[in-house]
Amino acid sequence: MSLVLVPATPTVRLLASVVNYFPFFALNLRIFFYDGDLTGWDMALFTFVFIFTIVQLTLYCVQGQTVGKIIFKLNIYSYDGQKAKLGKLLLRLIVGPLLSFIPPYMFINYGAILMKNKQCLHDKLTHTFVGVWREEAELAAAIPVDPATVRRRWALVLDIVFPGFIALALWILFYFLQFVYIVLFAISMGLLAFLYEPYLKIILDNMFNFGIVLTVVFYLITAYLIIRRRTSIGRILLKVR
């Protein structure tokens, strides 16, 4: 039996990430609904997340794995096929979270995994990839990817990153309106009063809420298209059947 090292599929990496981040999601959810009373369950959750974090960091630094990666038999490798060294692992540990919290890079970062080489943006920047060992015979029997499949993947990428474009557009609009405010202030106090009260002020004060509404509307439309039309916004824009 001959084994070959190949990049892990997006689905497997997503499942591994769910395992890795679920405890933190549970903790954030508890903090969000915290009512001021600290219970025994809260202490147990905090203790578990703390121990889980220590275990995750230890596994990551020692063998380039996490609990999720161990469950799905994944590891982090350099381009030469060897397990990534500690230096690259630490760099990856820094770059990944940074990209994950900066829109729209967070959508581009994870959307890139749907490309041919199955690498996130932080994988590319650190010259690493998440790999799994598979049987050579299994790979030889795999069906080649046709152009229609590629277009479907691009449509999925578009569906993922579209909310990022919404956030970016609103960010640009916010600072553009701030610029308009300064210009109007310099030109005419009377004109400023006319535009600033209440229209411009309302827009600026509610920009964040407006972004949330647009994103929710986007996902509602996407859900409707998937359930009723068996398609999505990305598929419509790229004309994928």
From TrEMBL:
Annotated RDD domain ranges read 10-126
GO cellular component terms given for this protein:
plasma membrane
What topology does it adopt in the membrane? Multi-pass membrane protein
User: What is its subcellular localisation?
Assistant: Cell membrane
Main location, first listed in the record: membrane
Keyword Ion transport in the entry? The reply is no
- InterPro entries, from UniProt? Pra-immunoreactive, RDD
Respond yes or no to whether keyword Nucleus is given for this record.
no
Known Pfam families for this protein?
A: RDD
Keyword annotations of the record = Cell membrane, Membrane, Transmembrane, Transmembrane helix
Bilayer-spanning residue ranges: 12-33, 45-68, 89-108, 154-174, 179-196, 208-227
PANTHER family on file: MEMBRANE PROTEIN, PROLINE-RICH ANTIGEN HOMOLOG-RELATED
- This one is known as RDD domain-containing protein
